[in-house]
Amino acid sequence: MENQNPPSYFNRPDLANRFIETEEPYPSLSDHHDYEPNLEFDDTELQTSVAIADAAIIEEEKSGDGGFDYLESPVSDGTIEENFEEELVNAPISGPYSIINSANEYDEDEDFSDVSQYGIVEVVGDDTYGRKIITVTACKLPNNNQLDHQRLLRYLTNTLDMFVEQDYSLVYFHYGLNSKNKPSLAWLWQAYRAFDRKYKKNLKALYLVHPTNFIRIIWNIFKAAISVKFGRKIMYVNYLHDLAQYLNLDQLNIAPSILEHDQRLVQKLNKIPRPGLLNLSHKETVPAAEVPDEPLPTKQFGVSLSFIKEHNNMDVIPPIVRQCVEFLSQPDALETEGIFRRSANVTLVRETQTICDRGELVDFKGNVHLAAVLLKTFLRELEEPLLTYELYDDIMQFQSLPKDKRPWHVKILILERLPEDNYQLLKYIVCFLSKVMDRSDLNKMTSSNLSVVFGPNLIWSPNNQLSLSSIGPINMFVDFMLTHWDQIFII
């Protein structure tokens, strides 16, 4: 069927000309959701649009960096639509672009080493909202004759399956997609259909970095099948320094070619990143005009355990951790479904962090998810992970150990090699999480689920990167620690 009610800018010559004649960023497509999309999809549109999309790719390749046209990033108020979207497009597609249902039917033990070696998909930490970040990088896609895109889809599905039960964000780096490595439109549509409601409902933000005309064309093709609610989750980011307001760029393993491309864009438009943001070409922090030499004595976020202990008149447990745990230990909080899976309003989280860093008591006002996010944020922002850099390599070996060796291995690491202050805080948190697990029939937080949430916040590599290959050992180690906590810790 023909698309009805197209976005208003397609009927305005002045805006339409911008898509063709200028190099200035385009208005965000997210700003044009005042129409109700059709929830039907005619695959003839795919077939007739392949040539158009291919032409867009070729035109972008010919134009080079200087000729790329970019979409404008929307202004966010710090909140994301929380309601789950309705089910999308259930009817199957016929013809040459039919869905291959086996995309979701993968073997859990399937070896994806041939796909993972490219680093196309990575899990890199949490964003400022407390949501897990998953990146997809187009420039890392090899030539089509070197990669089975069906396996890539199963690999992506397998990766997301570890995180879809909690809120998460996707970052797609578009630069580097070309005619030699781009998947077909049929595959893109198949991927969208493969990621059903289970994957879409907890996806809270999809950042499209360095989007070009090709993104606009794909949107125009698929817009009839994309709900308004899902469309609101899409955020267009023209420059990496704009992405910094949502994510810690140091966590992202950004390819050098993307950094160079972004620098060219910034220089071309005479845009200079704001002071205090990341100098992406050298991975160094640009000093702000006025930065205090020393943090507030009462500061608890982003400092070391020794600093907190010295300045906050505490025994072992940081005040904010004790406040969060005591609040979350109440029956109503413990029984909250998805207690550590949901995100909280980023403005409220930052305001509460400021209150805490001033040495004041925090009033959670009954907000369970605020307390849960603050606890995870505290652990994630420590100068050194609670399980320390020294233990990282040993934890990475945990998965390969024989089962009868694992208890001894864990006890050695935690009881003998972990600093005393780290041990006492870890014991305090794990004992609390045991209470969470006791109510897993209500809150749905098993040891496995908690390990996915807390693992990356308890240990990460010295280079601050979290690769997919490290997730398995980390989660398995934390899961074992939570399951056998009463045998590991001296109570």
UniProtKB/TrEMBL annotation:
One of its GO terms (biological process) is small GTPase-mediated signal transduction. GO terms for molecular function: GTPase activator activity. Residues 303-489 form the Rho-GAP domain. Residues 1-31 are annotated as: Disordered. CDD domains: SEC14. It comes from the Eukaryota. Residues 111-259 form the CRAL-TRIO domain. Pfam families: CRAL_TRIO_2, RhoGAP. GO terms for cellular component: cytoplasm. PANTHER family: RHO GTPASE-ACTIVATING PROTEIN 68F. This is Rho GTPase-activating protein 1. It comes from Parthenolecanium corni.
